[in-house]
Write a structure and sequence with these properties.
The protein has helices spanning about 5-15, 20-35, 40-50, 55-75, 75-80, 100-105, 115-125, 130-135, 165-175, 200-210, 220-230, 235-245, 250-270, 270-275, and strands at about 140, 145-150, 160. The protein is mainly alpha-helical and about 280 residues long. The protein folds into 2 domains: about 5-80, Orthogonal Bundle (DNA polymerase, domain 1), CATH 1.10.150; about 100-215, Intergrase catalytic core (hpI Integrase, Chain A). About 25% of the residues are buried.
């Protein structure tokens, strides 16, 4: 086993997602081919080359995280600590309006029960695309009205409540299934009924989004779920638990989204403007 394969195993044992493992391994492989002596200095030179080639601070931040993980893997903790991430402006997550969500769901033909349910789950439970793809039929507890989300981000399991109407949607969808797969969602055009892939989920949203005249991604639906829940007065710690955020600070960004929403509504009302103009 070469060093990259060992590094990938290390990352998997750390609970990193398959996508993170793939990206970290890609950049570390490029780094090792670029230097003979992996250390803080050679890492800075590698990052400088990437910056000169047009990498943004956001992209460089990913590379820094990959290199820090590699240094820790090699027992070079001090080198990892010396390596600092570039400052990346934290942009507010984009969410859809409730009207946009309605348009998106209406864009799905009635015969496409699988596609409709995927969209409803992304918006109605706040699951990540990868978590939806990994769902098994046994993970749906119809009696208690919950989903068991296994191996989410950070390899953590969590319980997510499901609204009654969504449970009914799942039941109706399962009545159409005859493939025998253990997964809740499968690829429909393959002889072997494998679980659906995140790439397919992205494609479906792009297709129905274009039909509805809106831009949408799986994460935008997750953001929409959190934002709309907060606007309804749901406690932020409850939202944190449902989303599977380990830190409350990650969830608190949605309070800023809601404030922006309120500011836009206030500006649109022009109450003070009208008084002054009178």
């Amino acid at each position: 086993m070469d060093v990259i394969e060992e590094f990938k195993t290390y990352l998997e044992l750390e609970g990193k997602s398959p996508q993170t493992v793939r990206m970290y391994a890609y950049y570390v492989d490029r780094f090792l081919k670029d230097t003979k002596t992996p250390n803080y200095r050679s890492a800075l030179r590698f990052l400088a080359k990437l910056k000169q080639s047009g990498y943004s601070n956001k992209s460089l931040n990913l590379v820094v995280q990959a290199l820090k993980a590699y240094f820790r893997f090699e027992g070079l903790d001090e080198e990892a600590e010396r390596l600092k991430s570039p400052k990346v402006p934290r942009s507010l997550p984009k969410s859809l309006t409730k009207e946009d969500v309605k348009k998106l769901i209406k864009a799905v033909p009635p015969t496409r029960k699988r596609d409709r349910l995927i969209i409803l789950l992304l918006y109605g439970t706040g699951l990540r695309a990868s978590e939806v793809c990994n769902l098994k039929i046994e993970d749906v507890d119809f009696k208690r009205g919950i989903l068991i989300v296994k191996g989410g981000k950070g390899a953590k399991d969590r319980v997510v409540p499901i609204p009654d109407f969504l449970l009914k949607e799942i039941e109706d969808y399962l009545k159409t299934r005859e493939d025998g797969s253990e997964y809740l969602f499968v690829e429909v055009r393959r002889e072997k009924k494998d679980r659906i892939s995140p790439k397919t989920v992205w494609y479906l949203l792009k297709k129905y989004g274009e039909k509805a005249g809106i831009r949408v991604t799986p994460h935008m639906l997750r953001h929409s779920f959190a934002t709309h829940m907060l606007e309804k007065g749901v406690d932020i710690r409850v939202i944190q638990e449902i989303l599977g955020h380990s830190n409350l600070s990650t969830t608190q960004i949605y309070t800023k989204v809601t404030v922006e929403h309120l500011k836009r509504a206030q500006e649109k009302a022009r109450l003070v403007d009208e008084i002054i103009e009178e």
